[in-house]
Amino acid sequence: MKGERKLKYFVSLAKIYQPYLFFQAWFDDTNTRSLLQEMSMEERKMFGFDVRGIDWESYIVNVHLQGIKRVVFGGRSS
User: Fold this and answer.
1) Residue 78 contacts residue 65 (beta carbons within 8 Å)
2) What is the spatial distance between Cα 62 and Cα 56, in angstroms, rounded to a whole number?
């Protein structure tokens, strides 16, 4: 039963991510970095949106996938 549940989980993830698997786009933060350069240090601390400081692996594992689990499994995150 446990293996079947894992399989259902991975199949549901594959369905969710299917549109993105072969999506060929380039995300560019040039304008964001330009705006950040124009901001004062006080504004930078206040708004803090420098994407270079994001720990993407932690975000994907601890935030994004947990949200997907809640949606797919109806409120459960573990």
Assistant:
1) no
2) 10
Residue-wise pLDDT for 29-63, tens only, equals: 889 889 888 999 999 888 877 778 889 899 988 99
State whether the Cα torsion 31-37-38-42 is positive or negative: positive
State the amino acid at position 19 in one-letter form.
P
| 29 sits in which H/E element | none
Interatomic CA distance for residues 77 and 68, integer angstroms: 8
**Locus of tokens 């601390």:** 45
Query: pTM to 2 decimals?
Result: 0.48
* Cβ atoms of residues 70 and 77 within 8 Å: yes
